[in-house]
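Honest question from a wet-lab person: if I give you the sequences of every part of a complex, can you actually get the arrangement of the whole thing, not just the pieces? Trying it with mine:
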Amino acid sequence: MCAGEPHGERDCVGVAVGGHRSALTWRGHIVRPLRLHLPVHPSTPGEVRRQLWRWLEVLRWPREDAEDLLLAVDEAVSNAVEHAYNGPIPARTHRDGLGVELCVSDTTATDDTHRVVVSVTDHGWWKPRAVSSGSRGRGLQMMRALTHCLEVTATGSGTRVKMISRAVQVNRRRAADAAKRLGEAGTLLLLASWMPNYH
Amino acid sequence: MVADAQLDSGGQQPELTVTHPRAGLCVIEVRCELDILTGPSLTQLLSQELSGECRGLIVDMSGCNFLGSSGISALLESKRQADTTSVPIVLAGMNRIASRALQVTGLESMFPIYPSAAAAVSALSG
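Yes, you can. This is the full assembly:
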């Protein structure tokens, strides 16, 4: 469980825009969290992986930590696609799709340590025990093993999976390089929103 | 079947190809990410090969740069099927992320793993 841990946006070093906390500062530069709203489709996990990888590349997240996060987020999104909408999908639910949100959070006492906070929200309903065996049970096992903490919450309108990555040491040189990149091309990349075409 | 996988790829290019370097030896080359989109195609292909004359099966993972739990399930299902007829099934050319997926699920020891398909072919031919 992620008790006592950062809880997403409010823990990101944020900048309020129009009453919404929609950006965070990272090494002195404004970087938006990665927010995706995606259709419920088997191709969606792949799309999330590509976007996540690009986002982490811009941040120069260490490769092995980035790969672990990729595996964990893929499981959360695959879970939502496969199980959140079992049975006939009401038109409204289908339109709502999945929400995936990631941000970088300063979480620890040391200034050089960062984590990624991930939230995968669907508007269906499933419970961990319903997927405790087989492929999806393995998925939960993977998510736990690959992250610092995992929390699955039934919300009023669906299910939310929250994961916090292991802490990553960001050395000053890497941070300076990343800040420079973010200032030039990275911010544009991160600001670009991707909206799926619903059918 | 491979054609079906390509049709269902949604832009991704799943490529699963089968070769038979020796009689009874099957090499399935995976050149795509293995996830919920492509896992079912691999399951189907492995099952088809194991139902034939296959006496040894090599899954060449050198072109596979992602392995999620659906891909792992496909491998495990084929392992179960292969075990019933004592057909060895081995993995070759695993990259770091695929090895990591097997490691965190505690399944690393389920499959003999060779550095390359060629090494696996030699081992199974001996």
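Two things worth pointing out. Confidence is low (pLDDT under 50) at residues 1-11 of chain B. Helices of chain B lie at 2-7, 39-50, 69-84, 96-104, 117-125.
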